[in-house]
Backbone:
């Protein structure tokens, strides 16, 4: 069997791709299935993609990605399956997906972990969003042999167009997340990990953190690819790097994941919370979408609706080391049972049956 993986990002550069595609590849190889993985963006283009300026280089990198996709068309019949993570091209109609499924008749597996049929416009992607053609997701779901959806909300959407829509949560490799946070630290650290696209969500809990700062001493650590715009005396910024991701997360005693109550946020797969819990770090999250199922309230962390919920939950954990330790240990067991890589490897491999 031969599989072509069509992915947006260079290897090792984006969380969704790392945890939904790349970490499963050794299991695929172990079964004797060969594969080829082809990103749209080169490493050089991706390095400047979300930075200001470099317009000509970005245009050149985009054209290069399109030309590579065109060249792949003539190779499609070499493959038994084509696995597309999120989209084959970042803008324009789903021409590649249509050719693969309808003309070359290759079995198309479509994987997504966000509500990408909705517009989610930020200052950075506003121009590109005009050309995104978000409605194409419904068509791709219709053409798919199987659909892999990151949470139940996404699965329900896909099932409108394709009965072969499978729930495959974003999973954690516990062989890599192989340590348990020691909560006996001199100073408590509350923290968050993510990318520039979700950094604005931290504004939702900024007033709560400011209020806590008036009563308690702690650090608030943000692990990201860009510095946050927050007015907090407790703020410490750590630039994200894959090779020290686990070590940086182990700085935290408490992990947070605020989300707004929007349709887009319902498509999020609670992955930050899973990262925290896998390392024995209690998670405090917004009671939105997949967060509700991923973080059983009061057992492994807390789900919050109001600012008061956030304040009381964070305060409780700040003041109680035994509670942090117990919830952290229970969270680790919960992830091992429900969200680990080994638990869901067969769900991934069964996509190719």
Residues:
């Amino acid at each position: 069997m031969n599989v072509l993986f069509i992915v947006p990002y260079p290897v090792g550069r984006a969380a969704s791709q790392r945890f939904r595609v790349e970490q499963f590849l050794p299991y695929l190889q172990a079964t004797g299935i060969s594969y080829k993985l082809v990103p749209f963006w080169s490493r050089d283009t991706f390095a400047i993609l979300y930075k200001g300026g470099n317009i000509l280089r970005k245009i050149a990198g985009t054209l290069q990605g399109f030309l590579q996709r065109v060249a792949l068309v003539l190779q499609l019949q070499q493959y038994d399956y084509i696995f597309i993570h999120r989209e084959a091209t970042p803008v324009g109609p789903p021409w590649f997906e249509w050719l693969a499924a309808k003309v070359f008749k290759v079995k198309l597996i479509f994987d997504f972990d966000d509500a990408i049929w909705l517009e989610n416009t930020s200052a950075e992607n506003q121009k590109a969003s005009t050309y995104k053609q978000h409605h194409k997701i419904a068509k791709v779901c219709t053409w798919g042999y199987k659909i892999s959806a990151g949470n139940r909300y996404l699965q329900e959407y896909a099932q409108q167009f394709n009965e072969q829509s499978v729930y495959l949560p974003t999973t954690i490799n516990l062989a890599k997340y192989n340590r348990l946070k020691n909560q006996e630290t001199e100073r408590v650290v509350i923290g968050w990990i993510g990318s520039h696209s979700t950094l604005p969500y931290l504004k939702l809990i900024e007033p709560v953190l400011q209020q806590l700062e008036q009563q308690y001493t702690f650090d608030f650590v943000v692990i990201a690819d860009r510095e946050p715009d927050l007015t907090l005396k407790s703020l410490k910024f750590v630039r994200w790097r894959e090779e020290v991701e686990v070590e940086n997360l182990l700085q935290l005693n408490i992990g947070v994941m605020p989300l707004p109550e929007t349709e887009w946020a319902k498509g999020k797969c609670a992955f930050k919370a899973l990262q925290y819990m896998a390392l024995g770090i209690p998670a405090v999250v917004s009671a939105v979408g997949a967060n509700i199922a991923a973080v059983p309230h009061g057992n492994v962390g807390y789900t919050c609706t109001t600012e008061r919920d956030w304040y009381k939950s964070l305060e409780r954990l700040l003041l109680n080391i035994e509670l942090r330790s117990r919830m952290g240990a229970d969270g680790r067991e919960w992830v091992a049972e429900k969200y680990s890589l080994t638990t869901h490897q067969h769900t991934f491999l069964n996509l190719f049956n």
Q: What stands out?
A: Residues 189-338 form a domain with the Rossmann fold fold (CATH 3.40.50.2000). The chain has two domains: 2-168, 189-338. DSSP finds 16 helices and twelve strands in the chain. The radius of gyration is 21 Å.
